[in-house]
Input
Amino acid sequence: MRRPTLEAVAARAGVSRATASRVVNGQTTVAPDIRDAVLRAIDELGYVPNSAARSLVTQRTDSIALVVSEPGNRVFSEDPMFSTAIRSASVELEAVNKQVVLMLVSSPKSHARVERYIAGGHVDGVMLLSMHGADPLPSALSRLRVPVVSYGRPAVPVDIPYVDNDNVGGAEAGVRHLVESGRRRIATIAGPQDMIAGQDRLAGYRNVLRDSDRRSIVAVGDFTRESGAVAMRQLLRDDPELDAVFVANDLMAVGALQSLRQAGRRVPDDVAVVGFDDIEAAKYTEPPLTTLRHPIAEQAAAMVRLLLNLFEGGPTDPVILPTELVIRESA
Output
């Protein structure tokens, strides 16, 4: 069977092709009874608009790029941050009949590929996730004048709307909890220092220790479980008397708990542990992990809403979501 055409829809509805086209493209200048007749004809004929032709008319693709500056083995790993953010953004976009185009960036070649794709007009806007250091994409995309928003404050000085969580305040709450429980030698496993989340959570840790007259004891991981285990072993070598550790994300905290067990340290009796994120696994560690709840899904949904506001010329002020201390048995 031949695919139904717009001309066939117009003939069935008894209207001109131009009128049928306006209905298909969602224009509001058509009388309700005529709109109903066209929609009825579309349903009867099983007409499906040609997306390429429709894009030429509307200047829209109804596609949004979600650009993740990580390699595939990191995005599709045990870290639930990526799957949660991608799923939440997809659901939010589906509700307004838009789709996600997932693009991974981890090399200069892939940066150029993504920039070419976006410059080619294949998407209506861009969402940036997991930006590192001097990543050239934010600046490059802002020059293309394509609508762009970021999951997290950009690390480079570029005027891009963003949604973040209160990384500094959350870290301060977690470390303050350790101080108030009487811990004296409080270490931290910081996140990567080329990422804003890593920088801000380390700043929050240092703020509280400075105010409580305690010295900083720092090791740096990369937000993976293995790096948390390695960093915890380093901290125990650097200061065998430490009695608490604030870990900049839960996945590294899982690794830290493993290293503490292997070293014969009891949690929380010998060493208290506080994480950050409140991933599902935090409830099931041994012991269950005290952590800061970071609303990952809500942050991704807010990022989509911010982009939609940008399309409509609405407010694009930064959105900062609160964190919440969740006290369990590890501290």
Observations:
- The two ends are 67 Å apart (CA to CA).
- The longest helix spans residues 296-312.
- The mean pLDDT is 91.
